[in-house]
Amino acid sequence: MQKPIWRGRRGIRYADQLRNPDGALLVAPAAAEDMQCPKGIQLETDIKAAPDCLAAHKLHQACAWESSGDEFMSEDVIDKCEAGFLDRLTAKQKRLYQKRIGACSDRYPVTEEGGSIQIYLSWMCDEDLAATYFKAAKGGQIVGTPRWRVPNVSQ
Asked: What pTM, to 2 d.p., does this model score?
């Protein structure tokens, strides 16, 4: 049995999942190139104080540390997003949402060799998914399936 190397609220990540099929290490995407992190920000506090999911997500994208420390901010953003849609999903939609979270883990697996950048990538992918569902639910029940793809890694 594999030894888990990272155990977070959203699941367990295993050591053999860091490399892509070609064996290359995955690298972090540029964090929202067109946005600037506001000066004097206290990221965790300001994310919690954001008026909604999308504002919190945008702030985190602009100010991400690109390390395992982002997990805690991503949890706050995801919680804020899920509060706006999770209870409105049908059982089938919830299963798809969980499957898509799994796709993030598959695309950005966390392993011993990958270090904190992989933790950052995986959590930001989960956060992007939650923000997409929040947008789709704004104004009521989600009808159909929100359009979403696992974010690509820029090199």
From this structure: 0.72
